[in-house]
Amino acid sequence: MIPLKNLKPKEKNQMQVKLIVDGGKMAPGPAVAQQLGPMGINLGKVISDVNEATKGFVGMKVPVEIDVDPKTKTYKIQVFSPPVAELIKKEIEAEKGSGEPGKFKVGNISFESIVKIAKTKMPNLLAKDLRSAVRLIVGSCVSSGVLIDNKEAKEVEKEILSGVYDNEINKEITETSPEKKKKLAEHFAIVKARQEKEKKALEEAKAAEEAAKAAAAAAVPGVAAPGAPAAPGAPAPAGAPAAGAKPGAAPAAAQVAGGAGAKPAAKPAKK
Fold first, then answer.
1. pTM for the predicted model, two decimal places
2. Do 159 and 105 contact (CB within 8 A), yes or no?
3. Domain spanning 2-79, CATH architecture
């Protein structure tokens, strides 16, 4: 349950609480308790009434307004249509939209369902007519990674402008036949299988690339793989102190040059 705003006056002697709840499954929480509790409102009854009013939107986030009269302790519940994205997800039975809508799809919706959602959301959309509302819903399908009638949503946008869907829009057809639903499901099953295969191939390619990098690093003498400690006895890189050297000691190369068997530097000749 998400509080949209704190209590605010609506009419004289009335307060208004705005929430977004899980349809039919509103649960007790601090958001509503802190706002309604001090007024002596029966929270259990409020929650029960909200769940009854939103039971038709199970599985979706639903905007709700509760108008309260603190003196009489009465209230009125108003339920608003869920966001477009929630309605689309319900139609395709998806938990969320696609993280990469241009590459991976999460469902396949019928154009009739698009018209139904457009009609439901018309009062809340900045659309002059049903055609404009339909185009807005199709735009949401583009950003959510949802196919429409087995096609890319962007392709359907163009077809709406060219009149391909005039019959469905003008007649306000909102029911999808069982036969069409079956065909849409079968097509998306094929799309989903292909996507899973592509995802697996990408993961395997990434793993192979990382393994190749590790192998290349291990093949260079004296160079440890990224993040691995140097092998015992391996020479230290040029410019680095030798293993076990005290802080501030000369680099390994310098110690070798000045070690046993090295000739002392020649003295300057006397004049």
1. 0.64
2. no
3. 2-Layer Sandwich (3.30)
